[in-house]
User: What shape does this take?
Amino acid sequence: MSNSILFHGSKEVVKTPEIRAAKYNKDFYFGFYCTLLENQAARWATRFTGHGIINKYQYSESSDLNIKKFEKMTEEWLDFIVACRNGKKHNYDIVEGPMADDTIFNYVQNFIDGKISRKNFWSLVEFKYPTHQISFNTEKALECLKFIDSYEVTDEE
Assistant: This one.
């Protein structure tokens, strides 16, 4: 994915991406989140009000960065997300992999809380549709993104 188009769903046009500390920890900790999947960005953009903005970026990967890629949901991916969601910071500039969407996040939270076993977690997520996210976790990583354009979307499209 060294040179590709990425999408970011938002309530606003984001010409200059930035890392914001949020109230809740995210899958890959605090970062600026994008995806290869335009329809997923549309879901992010419209999730609260039914309308939003998709921002489009050119991504040029830099070999100078510390990058972690998860090709699919694995034990390592699950443990990484649990650690990040519990507030553990990592030292990667960029982290890429599947997303723990709302449904999967509920399973992750149940696993964290000891309500389901690791084996049960994997049986529950086995048939979920593919997701993708890439988190830019440092200012240096954000330099890999070049804003192309943006456009409005609604959840009726």
